[in-house]
Amino acid sequence: MAGTKVLRSLLHELRLASQSPGKIRDSLAARYILAQYKKYETTDQQLCKARDEAIFLGQTYLTYLSSLRKYNELYKEYHGSGERTVKETADLVGFKLPTDPK
């Protein structure tokens, strides 16, 4: 992934993880990430090993944030909220209950 794509993906995940409806630029995490990307910005004529390390670190943060978001979604969906009926359990796992014609 290119550096710009990682940065945009990171800011998107931060926006999804944010609890406050305000701008993402106001958050401390977003400001830190932007500062790090500006710090390791290079031109075509420079070779910077720290930039590659910064991109790798950005990808690691991106993986962590997206995995955390997916975990929370799954937890909310499947976490038990007490007893479930047989029909709810069957719907949860994708089964259909047989019907009794009367």
Please report which band the strand proportion falls in: under 5%, 5-15%, 15-25%, 25-35%, 35-45% or over 45%: under 5%
Q: Work out the helicity level.
A: 55-70%
Give the N-to-C terminal Cα separation.
61 Å
- Rg on CA atoms, Å: 22 Å
Explain how this protein is built.
This is Protein FMC1 homolog. It comes from Drosophila arizonae. Belongs to the FMC1 family. The protein is mainly α. Helix content is 64%, strand content 0%. The chain has four helices and no strands. Helix 1 runs antiparallel to helix 2 and helix 1 packs parallel to helix 3. The longest helix has 30 residues. It starts with a helix and ends in a 9-residue tail after the last helix.
Structural key phrases:
elongated; FMC1_homologue; 64% helix; Protein FMC1 homolog; 102 residues; 4 helices; mainly alpha
Give a short synopsis of this structure.
With 102 residues, the protein is mostly helical.
Helix and strand topology:
Elements (H helix, E strand, L loop, with lengths): L2 H15 L10 H12 L9 H30 L7 H8 L9
Helix pairs in contact: 1-2, 1-3
